[in-house]
Design a protein that fits this description.
Length: about 400
């Protein structure tokens, strides 16, 4: 039966890594997959993670099953990180957090859970959104529609158009929002905009669904959670998918969480039983290691402080690289204004060049980026930024 299957093209994001590896050009630059890199182009294991792993290795006494929700201690600490321990939704026990195989696992479980509660639900996603949102949510059988988000001309959120479309969304449907560090465009909602969407959700009855894959990469752990915490306080129901891939650098360990805010503690108990049955029916229970490391870090003041410092270092390096790229583009004679790169947030921005120009960067300059012109800012370094800026300017002049 398998002979009828047709070969598929490589994943638009992950496929870039293989092409980059195979390239022998010494000047090659990888701005593709969204992973943090240091000045040497490495993605090292964080020191706090290494220390937590050693401590955990010495204390782990069993490999017995962890169960569909994951470890209770890890879930509480993750919930506190996202919402804050004294958040009213947390203290009134209306939030349930489970451990998931990364942010992707969380999104897929959430989609299956929504399908269970309301099969005809539509999920509204931003245009553009992270490419993998569509299969992760759509393959669960939910309808996906888009709302306007990024304006390629102003290089900012087109909030009026966004609100106009969201004004048509009602009860039973969901609106997927990026908690911070929008992937792929880097243009985030400001506080007033979060407040306005919250008011609209209350008025029209749609359920917000927040993907928070980059907490701590924008302005800080608490600052980046502003939208999540506001909505959790105001709206009756909320879904939050979170990831520990970027902020703890645990990519391959697949550590993430799914938090659902319910209208009442009684609903939370009913909902949780359904959520766990979804998990049992897909992968039974999450992997342990990554979340155990997160738990070990968050349970220790010393390791938490160490992690905060390392997270701040990553965040500040990305901010500095944003300013550096803009400055180099000006120096190399770019005719258009790239100041937006400096003001956007998180790992990604669109260069705003067309597909043909992207292909020229890939083919002629060995600079790897997603077709949409999304670049991973963390792939820039002091050593490659001149070549990168020169190449972008050269491609724009053609
Ligand atoms: C990205 O957007 O590059 C990352 O989230 C990695 C991925 O899985 O696509």
């Amino acid at each position: 039966m398998f002979e009828i299957l047709k070969a598929l093209p490589a994943d638009p994001i992950l496929g870039l890594s293989a092409a980059f590896k195979a390239d022998t050009n010494a000047k090659k630059i990888d701005l593709g997959v969204g992973v943090y890199k240091d000045e040497q182009g490495n993605t090292p294991v964080l020191k706090a993670v290494k220390q937590a792993e050693l401590a955990y290795f010495n204390s782990e006494s069993s490999k017995v099953y962890i169960g569909p929700p994951g470890a209770a201690g890890a879930n509480t600490l993750l919930q506190n990180l996202i919402f804050g321990a004294s958040h009213p939704a947390v203290t009134s026990t209306r939030v349930r957090t489970i451990q998931t195989p990364g942010g992707c696992g969380s999104l897929r479980v959430a989609a299956e859970f929504i399908k269970k509660a309301n099969p005809p639900a539509t999920i509204w996603v931003s245009d553009p959104t992270w490419a993998n949102h569509i299969p992760l949510l759509g393959n669960a059988g939910l309808t996906i529609k888009t709302y306007p988000y990024y304006d390629a001309t102003t290089r900012a959120v087109n909030f009026n158009a966004m609100m106009e479309t969201l004004g048509t969304v009602g009860k039973g449907d969901l609106v997927l929002l990026h908690g911070c560090c929008h992937n792929p465009c880097g243009a985030d909602l400001n506080r007033e905009q979060w407040q306005a969407i919250t008011e609209l959700a209350l008025k029209n009855g749609f359920t917000p669904f927040i993907d928070m894959a980059y907490q701590g990469f924008g302005e800080g752990l608490d600052e980046d959670a502003y939208g999540v915490r506001l909505m959790a306080e105001k709206v009756p129901e909320l879904i939050v998918s979170s990831s520990c891939s970027k902020n703890f650098g645990l990519y391959r360990e697949r550590a993430g969480g799914l938090s659902i805010v319910y209208q009442s503690a009684a609903d939370a108990d009913k909902g949780q039983s359904n959520l766990l049955s979804v998990v049992r029916g897909i992968y039974s229970m999450p992997p342990n290691h990554g979340s155990a490391i997160v738990e070990t870090i968050l349970a220790s003041t010393e390791l938490t402080n160490m992690w905060h410092d390392e997270l701040a270092e990553m965040r500040n390096r990305i901010k500095a690289l944003r300013a550096l790229l803009n400055q180099k583009l000006i120096e190399k004679g770019a005719q258009q204004d790239f100041g937006f790169i400096e003001h956007q947030s998180g790992m990604f921005s669109f260069l705003g060049i067309n597909k043909d120009q992207v292909q020229q960067l890939v083919q002629n300059y060995s600079i790897y980026l997603v077709d949409s012109s999304r670049i991973n800012i963390a792939g820039i370094s002091q050593a490659n930024v001149d070549y990168l800026a020169e190449s972008i300017v050269a491609v724009l002049k053609k």
